[in-house]
Design brief:
Strand 5 and strand 6 form a beta hairpin. The protein folds into 2 domains: about 100 residues, Phosphorylase Kinase, domain 1; about 230 residues, Aminoglycoside 3'-phosphotransferase, Chain: A, domain 2 (Alpha-Beta Complex). Helix 3 packs parallel to helix 8, helix 4 packs parallel to helix 10 and helix 7 packs across helix 10. The protein contains 12 helices and 11 strands. The chain is an alpha+beta fold. About 45% of the residues lie in helices and about 15% in strands. The chain starts with 5 loop residues before the first helix and ends with a helix. The structure holds 2-acetamido-2-deoxy-1-O-phosphono-alpha-D-glucopyranose and magnesium ion. Magnesium ion (MG) binds next to loops.
């Protein structure tokens, strides 16, 4: 990631409708895609400044339209609202030679977790994801643009993997040979359990645990962040992405695959949290949830492997084989989810109401 200087960031800020003050900037290095800075005054965090990765998010205008549309609905007593700070031009972002920039409000006293062992955190994560969906349940999905087409589409990700494999160096293919074999096997298995007839709804599409803000002072989830992928999708995408980061107590790029867990207590707490909302799911959607838990870690693993084979051109990596490590740990979780398929099916059918 490129580090921007204080003066550069100050210059960027002057394009937004903010009072002129002595702001401090602190880089937030979490995330594989955008560049993010925390803006503070006297060590009090007030805003989030982000440079949007234009290689990945091609059409910033429609991304911001999707986010703006959703944010209008995403407010409730138990759901904190994020605000977009407009540019002096009135737009929701600015375009400079250094890239596309936007500013959002910072939710005070908030914290995120990469992993958890705490059932209350798992339950709150379920509650807030359910609430997000409930608040957006009546949205007309045709009003939203699919900003990254086929983002969670297995066919597309398979084709991209095969294309990367065809071009990869012998050395990389040798290092990843076991994982490549496993990929073919898992692809087959997933094609056999694909659900049908699931309705589209507006999804977050990146509901990993560290995209949920929690209160620092109360055991409470506040809202979802990282809203760039808000677009039509299936509820089992959001369910599976959350489960892979909540029910597995090891980090996403854990090198030791024996540390990958499928913790049933955390799973049940998460589902209980979803069920604490007014029912919003259809029967077909509930039935598709175990598939989502197998699919999402596999898809992310496949994308990481593809990027490894391509020479790490998509995700920011901190070491050469990080994408391969991520792939292996994500595949390990996907297989654990497969072993728990019937268990999950029983639980969700019992715990979630239509
Ligand atoms: C990317 O940058 P970050 O961490 O928000 C990716 C997600 C993955 C995630 C981690 C647009 O998101 O799909 O879940 O890495 N976002 C995009 O695997 O590709
Ligand atoms: Mg993201």
């Amino acid at each position: 990631m490129r580090i921007h200087s204080h003066d550069e960031l100050k210059g960027i800020l002057s394009n937004f409708s903010l009072p002129e003050k002595e702001y401090q900037f602190q880089q937030i290095a979490v995330g594989y895609i955008n560049d993010t800075y925390l803006i503070s005054i006297d060590a009090r965090p007030l805003f989030i400044l982000q440079r949007i990765n234009h290689d990945i998010f091609k059409n910033v205008e429609v991304i911001m339209m999707n986010i703006n549309r959703a944010l209008k609905q995403l407010r409730a007593v138990d759901y904190k609202q994020i605000k977009i700070i407009p540019a002096t031009s009135g737009k929701t972002y600015i375009s400079l030679p250094s890239g596309y920039w936007r500013i959002m409000s910072y939710i005070p006293n908030s914290i995120t977790f990469n992993t958890t062992n705490d059932t209350q955190i798992a339950e709150q994560a379920g509650r807030i994801i359910g609430k997000f969906h409930l608040l957006l349940a009546t949205e007309d999905s045709s009003k939203y643009v699919e900003t990254i087409p086929k983002f969670h589409n297995l066919e597309l990700r398979k084709m991209q993997f095969l294309a990367a494999l065809a071009k990869a160096s012998d050395e990389k293919k040798e290092i990843a040979s076991e994982t490549i074999k496993l990929t073919h096997k898992l692809l087959h298995q997933l094609e056999d359990i694909r659900p049908s007839k699931v309705p589209l709804r507006i999804c977050h599409n990146d509901t990993k645990l560290n995209n949920i803000l929690f209160s620092k002072t109360k055991m409470e989830a506040l809202c979802l962040i990282d809203l760039d992928t808000i677009m039509p999708g299936y509820f089992h995408f959001d369910f599976g992405d959350a489960v892979r980061t909540i029910v597995n107590t090891a980090p996403e790029d854990e090198k030791n695959c024996t540390k990958i867990t499928f913790d049933k207590t955390l799973f049940e707490s998460f589902v209980k949290g979803i069920a604490s909302n007014q029912p919003f799911l259809r029967k077909e959607e509930i039935k598709a949830l175990p598939y989502g838990v197998v699919l999402m870690p596999f898809l992310h693993g496949l994308r990481a492997l593809t990027d490894y084979l391509n020479g790490n051109i998509y995700y920011k990596v901190s070491y050469e084989n990080q994408n391969l490590d991520r792939c292996q740990s994500l595949f390990a979780f996907s297989m654990k989810a497969q072993n728990n398929f019937d268990y999950m099916k029983n639980k969700v059918l019992n715990m979630l109401k239509e």
